[in-house]
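Quick question about two entries, pasted in order.
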Amino acid sequence: MTPAPDPFTTALAVADPQPETAFAALGRLADATVGARLFTIMTFDPDTREARRVYSNQPDAYPTFGTKPVNRTWWSGHVLDGHNIFVANTIEAIAEVFFDHALIRSLGCEAALNLPIVVGGRVMGTLNCLDRAGRYTPDRVAASDGLRLPGAAAFLLHALTDRQGDRA
């Protein structure tokens, strides 16, 4: 008996609309794996140090937009340069790093987990999961490792579709 493919793999194989279909499935996987009331995906170009939000499960509050420069901060050094997970389990810890902490809190989120997705030694971007205070326990942080391969697949699909869009 052949096992049924998981929902993310199925979403990844869909022709259109991509990468949105894969991103939405990745958001559902992140919610099931670690919890993500708010889920966004940011790309990062280490050469230009520019970031771009390419997906949000709450686009009214966090829409996708053009690129923005990433300032060199403790967070960028830890996550984007050091390839480490960032975890904050209180709104106070979030406020130390993110200027939009009031908006985050208004959405019922007081904890954040930012998972860098690294392919070939380069950070492609981050998966950003936000949820209730205290959500990201050591067990959930460890479980977030299971999002790395699906995240890499989604980022690579995004890069492929971006290149194809440039040729059209």
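Here is the second entry:
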Amino acid sequence: MPEKEILLTAEGLKKLEDELAYLKTVRRKEVAERIKAAIEFGDISENSEYDDAKNEQAFLEGRIANLERNLRYVRVIDANEIGTEKVGIGTTVRLKDLDYGDEIEYSLVASPEANPMQGRISNQSPVGKALMGCQVGSVIEVEVPAGVLKYEVLEIRR
């Protein structure tokens, strides 16, 4: 089954490529050194340093494989492709919380670029899914663990 296309901004692609390069060059060497040092402690059958280093190596190699797999399916979003008529990946949306009257702003991005603390939400998150395709004036209700959020879309921009 073919993988789904992963839409990223140029910035998001660079971030993933930089992480992959760092993991393959710097982190692999660091973990290899940890394994080597642990082996020098002697009997590896009861060596917790060795076990920890091998577990870290397995995690690292899994992350590298995941990044390489994802990068094969990346399509960079051209800023010129991003319209402002409807909410989509690459748009920034200003919303009004209909329960509290607060205004908030989110940038919709693909999952690998999401960082809610920076206002970058995934198109796969509950709020992101509800916003996709909305227009200015749309009202959405989103069920989240804390309850139901109600927003009105006030503005859509690149």
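Reply: The chain has a mean pLDDT of 90. The CA atoms of residues 31 and 57 lie 6 Å apart. Hope that helps.
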